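Sanity check

After download, print the first record. It should look like this:
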Amino acid sequence: MPNWKKIKKLRDILVAHRDTPSRKFHMASYIRIISGKENARTVTVKELRDNGSACRSAACIAGIAFINFEAPNKRVQLVYGTCFTIAASVRRLLELSKEEADWMFLGSWSDIPDIWPTRRMAVRYLNKCIKQKDVMVRL
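Expected structure tokens:
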């Protein structure tokens, strides 16, 4: 069963996260940003959280949850595929099944086919999840 307390907190973080670029709200953006060799380095969660360009500019639901809920001293290697490590960690933190995590993190809930959801849409989605106590909802 999902951890609704953390999901509510995640929604509140996204509401306050107005600097999140609207069109980069998805995992693919995180992959693209960190795929270059010049960015392949190991950082702590605190460093990701403190460096806005490291994660907030990619701003997927999993990334935002990771930098806010994971232990600040946990080390993360920023290389292609890091998003899968982040998604697995957040799945555990939010107590989601694999199916629920895939639905939430990959934007399957979006009401606009073939377009990645914006931060505002993610907030609407999380509000609906919280109200219905179900992660597998659509906008």
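If your output differs, re-run the checksum step. Summary of this record's structure: Helices lie at 4-16, 27-34, 45-50, 61-69, 82-93, 98-105, 119-132.
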